[in-house]
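To: structure desk
From: M.T.
Subject: fold request, one chain
Message: Could you run this one when you get a chance? Sequence is below, nothing fancy, just the single chain.
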Amino acid sequence: MTYCVALAVEEGLVFLSDTRTNAGVDHISTSRKMAVFEEPGERVLVLLVAGNLAITQATLQVLTEQRDSAQPSLWNAPSMVEAARIVGEAVREVHRRDAEALKQFNVDFNCSFILGGQIRGQAMRVFQIYAAGNFIETSSVNPYFQIGESKYGKPIIDRVLTPRTPLDEAAKCALISMDSTLRSNLSVGLPLDLLVYERDSLRVTRYVSLDHSNAYFQMLHSTWGERLRQVFGEIPDPLWADDGDVPRHERVELPAVPRPPHEGQRADGVQARPAQTLAQGPQPATPPRNT
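Reply: Done. Structure tokens follow.
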């Protein structure tokens, strides 16, 4: 599994991804989930990937091979919408080629992508692209996308991020979101790729790879945990009122249902004794015989 997040604010874009891949608890490795398509002064496009590693790498290969051909590619797409369509078509091409063979081995066609960036003369845009090749775009009410193991890092973004959030604060928000995910899910791991794009710069100016030795990320990790515990301790404990409104259910006494007599018992519940006759008596024992 993996975790990738892209945030869109007025000052720019933030892209963050982990690098862990795994095919079971005894086969854990690393692979970059971020790909940058840059023509300085002309365009900067960032692609984040999640899902089946073979499928996402095959899709990236299709997109990379397009550079040297006359067909539409991420290097010549006239708009960000067209760039998103190109990624979607690359996903469909891999699906047409590999999906049936994967199905025969009970492997789902599982992949998702985030594409964001800016083309000269146009506004910044961010899209989430699904395994079917269709896509959606961020908006003022939903200025971010997550793919992969997203549930642990979502609450902090929902509480903090708005389109007016300063760019550096947005980067900090993304890192805290990632730290929360790292804390709760072993399938997400360091190192991290962080790219912060400044609006209208049309070049990569802020990029860093974060691992265990990064002082800022270690400070953020420890400070966030300490402050959470501090704030938690400062919140008053709940006060308990009268419990008279508890939605109790009353016990209902059901009438007894007579049971049918079992073998050897009379209907009035008295155990029946086997009848004896004078003809009955002790039977002679059979002597052991040696043959």
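Reply (cont.): The CA atoms of residues 19 and 32 lie 5 Å apart. Let me know if you need anything else for the meeting.
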